[in-house]
Design a protein that fits this description.
Blueprint: H1 2-7, H2 22-25, H3 39-56, H4 61-70, H5 87-94, H6 96-102, E1 103-106, H7 155-161, H8 164-171, E2 183-186, H9 196-207, H10 220-223, H11 229-239, H12 246-251, H13 270-284, H14 286-297, E3 319-326, E4 334-341, E5 347-355, H15 361-379, E6 384-387, H16 391-398
Parallel strand pairs: 3-6
Antiparallel strand pairs: 1-2, 3-4, 4-5
Helix pairs in contact: 3-5, 3-9, 7-8
Pfam family, one: zf-RVT
Domain RNase H type-1: 322-395
GO molecular function: nucleic acid binding; RNA-DNA hybrid ribonuclease activity
Length: 405
């Protein structure tokens, strides 16, 4: 019905010609589809949002009610529909796989994170213990892999329990002393909160195999065109051979007369039509095109290259702290450079600091800002302007919402 509505014209009575199946239309735009929703898949994302609330807010009234009725003696992920469940609870149970894939732990003290069968590493891949590991390790928490007197990994214990790749992944996971509470995060959003949009992407990847229907190519060239949506839609239809050309109509078993315009005569396909139209347009606009080329080649053209942004000194009685984080390819650490200058551009202080382990770019930039804030606070410099080149960190710093990553 939805496919007929999309391809139909002139009211609901005209079903039109279904040039493409709904499965192909529902593919992501980057794969050659239109990005429409699979309703059956989308309907799983809504109850999984309720499951996320039960998982992350266990003290709410509805979470306590579900736990008391359906999983009083186990955790949410270990629960089952049970006897005579409600439709809502059945739907939540059917969508739990989305939460398993999409959520992970933010490591605080590690006392609430089970070591096994939980996503607490960034890559969410399972850990591989060594073959002779004791079965008594099954009840361990992530905190058991840390040092007792500091928030650092216990390298000896980790190396004794896991194979080399798993141990390297654990040791590459940063631990931040400022983060003290364990909390579940949604990996699909930078804020760490569940969203139906990101859950839908996970659900499609798990349930629907579109690898055999994808059309390779940079489809962003079509969707990023600065043109009205109907023009983008037309170009997409041309690329996907969804126009009523003579060849395509004949493929659909539609008889059409040979008395057609020159553009679509002689069994032309969609590509021939668009090339014909472009050829006509190029002839009409040839004079304008030549004029543009002449202006572009003129040596005294006023077109200027964008100038590099210059450093600006701070206002009176203030200092400026410039911060930069670099990620050397031959190192497993993040290099932080901090430079402080006064209102006359005179050098005051500078330092370089190395952080271990290497992290993602925006995390490294955020840590460099945190290090600079601590250092400036210790120096008691008064009014300070901070300058760095990470827009994501700057926006997150000024945002009222917390970025849980």
């Amino acid at each position: 019905m939805m496919n007929s509505f999309w391809w139909g014209h002139y009211g609901a009575q005209n079903r039109g010609i279904n040039w493409m199946s709904w499965e192909k239309l529902a593919m992501h735009k980057n794969d050659g589809g239109m990005g429409f929703k699979h309703l059956s898949t989308f309907n799983l994302d809504m109850p999984s949002k309720q499951g996320w609330r039960i998982l992350t807010s266990p003290n709410t009234l509805i979470a306590k009610m579900y736990k008391g009725k359906y999983f009083p003696n186990c955790e949410f992920f270990d629960s089952s529909p049970g006897h005579n469940p409600t439709f809502v609870w059945t739907s939540i149970c059917n969508s739990k796989f989305i939460l398993r894939v999409g959520c992970r732990w933010r490591i605080g003290d590690g006392n609430n994170i089970p070591l096994w069968n939980e996503n607490w590493l960034v890559d969410a891949l399972p850990l591989k213990p060594i073959n002779n590991i004791d079965l008594t390790y099954s009840g361990l928490m992530v905190s058991d892999l840390m040092e007792n007197d500091s928030k650092e990994w216990n390298v000896h214990r980790i190396s004794a329990m896991f194979d080399q790749p798993s141990a390297a992944r654990i040791l590459a996971t940063p631990l931040y002393p400022s983060v003290t509470d364990d909390r579940r995060l949604w990996r699909g959003e930078s804020k760490g909160e569940y969203s139906v949009k990101s859950a839908y992407r996970i659900c499609v990847q798990k349930l629907i195999d579109t690898s055999h229907m994808r059309v390779n190519g940079n489809w962003n060239l079509v969707w990023d065109i600065k043109a009205p949506p109907k023009i983008k839609n037309l170009i997409w239809r041309i690329c996907r051979r969804c126009l009523p050309t003579h060849v395509r109509l004949r493929d659909k078993g539609v008889e059409c007369t040979q008395v057609v315009s020159n553009a679509v005569n002689n069994n032309n396909n969609a590509q021939d039509i668009i090339f014909h139209i472009l050829q006509q347009l190029s002839k009409d606009d040839s004079a304008e095109w030549k004029a543009v080329r002449i202006v572009a080649s003129y040596p005294d053209s006023k077109t200027q290259e964008p100038s590099a942004r210059k450093w600006r000194k701070p206002m009176a009685e203030r200092v400026k702290c410039n911060i930069d984080a670099s990620f050397p390819a031959n190192s497993d650490q993040v290099c932080i450079d901090i430079c402080i200058r006064d209102e006359h551009s005179a050098f005051i202080l500078a330092k370089t600091e190395w952080l271990n382990p290497k992290s993602e770019v925006h995390i490294g930039e955020a840590l460099s800002l945190l290090s600079a804030l601590d250092w400036v606070y210790e120096l008691q410099l008064g009014h300070v302007d901070f300058e760095l080149d990470s827009k994501k960190v700057i926006d997150g710093f000024h945002s009222s919402a917390k970025d849980l990553f």
